[in-house]
TrEMBL record:
<dbReference type="InterPro" id="IPR002182">
    <property type="entry name" value="NB-ARC"/>
</dbReference>
<dbReference type="InterPro" id="IPR036388">
    <property type="entry name" value="WH-like_DNA-bd_sf"/>
</dbReference>
<dbReference type="InterPro" id="IPR041118">
    <property type="entry name" value="Rx_N"/>
</dbReference>
<dbReference type="InterPro" id="IPR032675">
    <property type="entry name" value="LRR_dom_sf"/>
</dbReference>
<feature type="domain" description="Disease resistance N-terminal">
    <location>
        <begin position="7"/>
        <end position="94"/>
    </location>
</feature>
<dbReference type="InterPro" id="IPR038005">
    <property type="entry name" value="RX-like_CC"/>
</dbReference>
<dbReference type="InterPro" id="IPR042197">
    <property type="entry name" value="Apaf_helical"/>
</dbReference>
<dbReference type="InterPro" id="IPR044974">
    <property type="entry name" value="Disease_R_plants"/>
</dbReference>
<keyword id="KW-0611">Plant defense</keyword>
<dbReference type="InterPro" id="IPR058922">
    <property type="entry name" value="WHD_DRP"/>
</dbReference>
<dbReference type="Pfam" id="PF23559">
    <property type="entry name" value="WHD_DRP"/>
</dbReference>
<feature type="domain" description="NB-ARC">
    <location>
        <begin position="169"/>
        <end position="346"/>
    </location>
</feature>
<dbReference type="GO" id="GO:0043531">
    <property type="term" value="F:ADP binding"/>
</dbReference>
<dbReference type="Pfam" id="PF18052">
    <property type="entry name" value="Rx_N"/>
</dbReference>
<keyword id="KW-0677">Repeat</keyword>
<keyword id="KW-0547">Nucleotide-binding</keyword>
<dbReference type="Pfam" id="PF00931">
    <property type="entry name" value="NB-ARC"/>
</dbReference>
Amino acid sequence: MATIPVDYAITKIVALLENEVSLLGRTRYELHEIKQELMSMKSFLVDADNRRVSTESEKTWVENVRDIAYNVEDIIDEISYHMNWPQSDNKFTRFLQNTIQTPQNMWMRHCVGKKLIRINNKIKAISERRQRYGVTSIEGTHLQDEQKWGLNRGESSLFISGSELVGIEDDKKSLLKWLTDGEPQRKIVSVVGMGGSGKTSVVAQVYNNPGVKQHFESYAWISVSQTFVIEDLLKSMIKEFYQATRELITMDLSYMSYRQLVEILVNFLKSVRYLIVLDDVWHTNLWPEIQLSLPDGNCGSRILLTTRKRDIAFSSFGVRSHVLFIQPLQEEEAWILFCMKAFSSNQNKCCSPEIEALARDIVGKCGGLPLAIVALGGLMASKKLEIEWRRVCNSLNWELSNNPILETVKKVLLLSFHDLPYQLKQCFLYCSNFPEDHFIRRKRLVRLWMAEGFIEKIKGLAPEDVADSYLMELGHRSMLQVVLTPSGKPKGCKMHDLLRELSLSICEQQNFCQVYKGTEVVEEIRARRLSVQASDKKLESWASMSHLRSLFMFVIGAPSMSSLHSIPSGFRLLRVLEMEFVPIKILSEEIGNLFNLRYLNLKGTCIDELPKSIGRLRNLETLNLYQTKVRALPNGIARLHKLRYLIASYYNLELVDDFNYISWTKAPSGIAKLKNLRVLHFVEVKGNMCRYVRNLTQLTCLGILKAREVDGKALCSSIENMSLLCHLAIMVSKDDEVLHLDTISSTPPQLTRLNLVGMLEKVPLWFQSLRSLTTLSLSWSRLNEDPLPYIQSMPKLRRLTLINAYGGKKLHFLAGFLSLKSLILRNMPQLEEVVIEKGVMPEIQNLWHSKCMALKMLPQGIEHLSHLQHVFLANVSEELVERIRGEDSVDHPKVRHIPKISHYYQTSAEWLCESLS
């Protein structure tokens, strides 16, 4: 982790040296010298990081190197700032600028040169101190102690009484079933969960079960370290198996080779029903190395392993397997376990009412993690006063890092962190910038990681794909709680509360980032990233923050502070400015001075206009204006050639049933020449601009307003040219305009979402080729023909929205819709009847009817929709509502299987909701 700032500095030096600019002058030599020194330092730091040593002298040296690297980065960014000073397009003005700036450049070069010389001297000085105080080699004693501690802790689970465990009965039953099901083939049973989730404890209870010991003829418990030696594991297996059968080992294992050890095990186990537990497996290469020693004699043998990594659990290499995911304890289970430990001396082990709220808050921070619950319960057992409980509750970060009672929790969680590659370490730590329990959307996180430079360049892969793999890997390693879409892609993630607390302590030590919640006394911000999670702080009151590279602002509670009406100045080296839903009203012209800015998120702010200076942000990759009132982009946007994401749409949810519920943003025609764009949503496409849109071949998401003069054939041709397109939204400018899309001959193969707003004369024939489509929305199509036959066979369609899409009186779902989960019917004034045949849309879970006043009853056939969970009704006829209101209603027998039916209706003052289930 200590190498990250050094990597940044080296990368920036290389980029600057490759740029042949006169501004460098004599500073080029100093930069070369610094680069060489930093590369040597990096090698030492990588070794230190891998071995995880922590002597005070090494800590001091690492801190010095990190500070030097940050200083180098600051100077290089300062050079880049002057190199990138915007030049006027007018030749005479440019001449005047150069005349004025030449003396300034000479003075700046002189100052930078002096700074680099001072830094070079500092580097040499700390290198000499390293030699002087003996920080010359890495012994790795702490790593060895850490591994030994981990092995001992795992084996101690064998001696824990079942009465001390809570919420494991279902997991025990599953494991017992898989181990003793009588099937003769050898099987692997994997138990997966984050560190401290109780994997080993559950397995130990099963392993010690008398019925299990009777079922297997021999058994062994093997604790696997992160750096195992295969020969040592084989020796341990031989000793355990022989001991279980009470046979003496007559041979000397000490000097035996791998081949000899495998031969002993194969001969011993080939006709025996055995059970072996491989506890705490960290690497997929264990099974290939060990499988030959565990023969399949068709005796019903089982291999039971525990791991923190999902990829290991699913790497069975052709062996039949089962996987058990250990879930966090339920809220009440967690509370029972905590009370057992914290109030063991109380009568009935109950919590006093005075501290119950604080106690439940502490249990909540454990996130159902048994190890943490037990440890915190033990910590609180000696605390009787409310003020003591409140102090721990408010300073859990400090307690984790400093309280010996919680040392076990810290060590267990750190094992997973230390096992991460350095790219994943920084990505993981970065998530602690977000507030506690915050759901972090995948797209947002990926764009932030890219802006920070965390994503490794891999030939043949887009940075977004690499970032997605990072997120999935952190999920597989149980470091982040990743939520998947139905298609298996990551939707977003959350941090476990304790992992976040641990992450914050590491971030503070490394000056990686700092979180301000409004209660701390802050004299100076030293971190490179600042996350403000309080809306009453004036940033100007802190000391200079010109070194900041990322600024996050989150509105916690009701915002009412004038200090948030505009972005403060003084952040000229920022790479990331994250202001989502912060109520700022003005974006100053000074924003154009942030030449380093890669990411600007103004989503949901009160801004209605962008300053012209935005065109100077030549490094900008992400500009998010979603749900703002910006209706026109300045011409300078077309000069942002590194721009990858431009999101400018506004949805008025109060007008969702009306044509104009989407507002678009006018963009200059030159925007279609930004060939790095991957997302362009939602802008107006005019005549000539349409010709250039076809060149945006990297687009994965396109949302456009088609002006009347745009040639439909040209637009169709452009869409055909976008082979990477996943999301397409097209809207006409007037509700009486026809959307001509008939000439599309081949659709983008990866298209998963399609939203069409405008009249359709007929259903496009190419609908039947949309084999990857998961979401389809047709708004104001006003088709005369039934669109369902063209849609019903889409194999992956999960969400179908029809808003004034069909002018007929009856929608008849005759067949198909096998994957559909949600059906939304809105603003269908002529619709009188919906019929769903038995066997159609068998997976449907949600059904919406809104503004369908002619509909007098729920769909015929609704009684066959066994998976239906929720029916939403809004602005529907009273006759329809009466048919399902109350147990004596006409259609109650047809809907009683539906868990939730919500009826939304509007009074003169507000919207109300009535439950009809």
